[in-house]
Amino acid sequence: MAMQLDNSRPSINVTPLIDVLLVLLIIFLIITPTEPVGLNARLPQESSDSAPRPPSNDVVIQTRKDRSVWINQQPVADGELDARLRAVAAMRPNGVVFLHGAKGLEFGDVARVMDAARGAGLFQVALVTAEL
């Protein structure tokens, strides 16, 4: 960088700085890859079955509008709920319980079944919000 001194104000010659800047820009353009590099992704394939099958460890408990309780599409009498849930917990210790309450049912009825499931040793309880 050269400084010129005349009778007016001193000024800096920026031409060499612009040359260096252009050389650096050309180097960076050459170094950057033109083809994007990424990971190979495998997309999920469609299954051949028309309806998905639930895993065998999972349990579906329904409380219907008439306050009746069904475990895996089988009705359960009022006094047998705790015994049936203990039997399910013994057969499927790591299973997930999907609890579905009918529309318009009070939450206390659903909470009673949820409490019975947790008391039987089924601690993974999920609430189903969709219509079955």
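(ticket continues) Second input and output from the same batch:
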Amino acid sequence: MKVSLKNVLGWAEKRNCAVGAFNTPTFENIRAVLGAAESAGVPVIIAHAQLHETEGAPLHEIGPLMVWAAERANVPVCVHLDHGEDADYIRRAMDIGFTSAMIDASAKPYDDNVSLTRQVVEEAHARGIDVEAEIGALASREGGDGGAGAAVYTDPELARRFVADTGIDALAASFGTAHGIYKAKPVLDFDRIRKIRALVGIPLVMHGGSGVSPEDYRTAISCGIRKINYYSYMARAGLNAVSARLAAGETTFFHSLAADATAAMRDDAARAIAVFCESCPRA
């Protein structure tokens, strides 16, 4: 069933766990993620990042499919716009039926970030749609190589001010993760997350969640992380499955490759969900 971001974050908050948010730029991704969530019997978030618009997954094509699949799932599913860069694009997602959106103006000066975020919040809340935003910035762009460049760590006091100034429903904070495939083990600043959570009073989001160790996931969750964005390593699992079949010379049709990729991504998503929700009673 299709639900709001607040619905799934409330579920996670009540159980002191985290809900997985998986980018789904293809039908295979959607099937993999929903299959993993349904098998585990837990809520999930399927997401579309604006950068996928030029990477073979335009919003007007994949968005309605995401909404259709969420409405038919037998677990709660939030349909989320990830890293929306402008109000018009977010508006298009809301028109399609997305139930939450992230406005990412984190690279802008503080006042500009607040202004754009507040504009999105006002319109989204009027339509019953939840909003995530970011203060601070990750070490690399969504879809990039982990660790490329320096992270701008989120200042706890600035996070408190930002939440008060914007009225957002969830905050993405930078504490040492990076988008993409990690080149080295990330070193996460958990004290920063604890301080931010104590000050802002809303659910916190981990971006760049792929490739983090199970131990670090558990610690981050204990510090107040309630949404973990996960994509790169799941996508790589699908690629590896396709590469293995091609190397074995056992493929005649493309649909065989798609099936292998879907199965591998489902398994990878299931492993992530198991860690995110391992302490959660399913009831």
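Agent notes: Residues 2-276 form a domain with the TIM Barrel fold (CATH 3.20.20.70). The chain is about 50% helix and 15% strand. Closing as not reproducible unless the customer responds.
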